[in-house]
Design goal:
171 residues; mainly alpha
Length: 171
């Protein structure tokens, strides 16, 4: 089947999703634990991936899939959005935009294996889950004595800290 007649539609729709991804990525920088923004980014990456796969645009499919996996890691709490992961997200969105532009111009698309591999490499590293990161920062922000009460200044100065972890959903 000749899909070339759908190329303009792909470019138009992909640009819409990518513009929304750019806005959402900026919002995620300001609010990294906002699940709604993460879900939105996941859905947009998934849509671009599906459209690109239908058009047999392998390089766009590969990168969109990697970004979708990154959002899934954020959503599932496997990694917390931080400076390096958000930089990867933004680089990925910029690369996808350049690939879509190249498809419109009939030029060879910018290769995405480098950024897709960076995302896969990042995801292969152990991450600090979102909930645990928030709990750890709460626990470490104020030294605690036994029983969870704030530590006395002398105890804090001696380096006595009681750090505990709560599991989300556990009573």
């Amino acid at each position: 089947m000749d899909l070339s007649k759908y190329s303009a539609m792909f470019v138009s729709e992909a640009r819409e999703y990518l513009a929304q991804m750019e806005v959402a990525a900026t919002q995620l920088q300001r609010s990294p634990s906002n699940r709604e923004i993460i879900d939105q980014l996941f859905r947009h990456a998934h849509s671009v991936k599906g459209m690109a796969a239908t058009m047999d645009f392998g390089e766009i499919t590969e990168l969109a899939h990697a970004l979708e996996d990154l959002m899934a890691a954020f959503r599932d709490g496997e990694h917390a959005p931080d400076g390096s992961s958000l930089a990867l997200l933004i680089e990925g969105i910029d690369t996808l935009s350049a690939q879509v532009d190249a498809r419109e111009e009939g030029s060879p698309p910018r290769l995405a294996q480098g950024i897709a591999q960076k995302v896969r490499d990042f995801l292969s590293l152990p991450g600090l889950p979102i909930a645990a990161e928030e709990i750890v920062s709460d626990q470490l922000s104020e030294p605690r004595a036994e029983g969870g009460a704030p530590a006395a200044p002398a105890q804090a100065a001696a380096g006595a800290f009681d750090v505990s972890f709560r599991v989300a959903g556990a009573g």
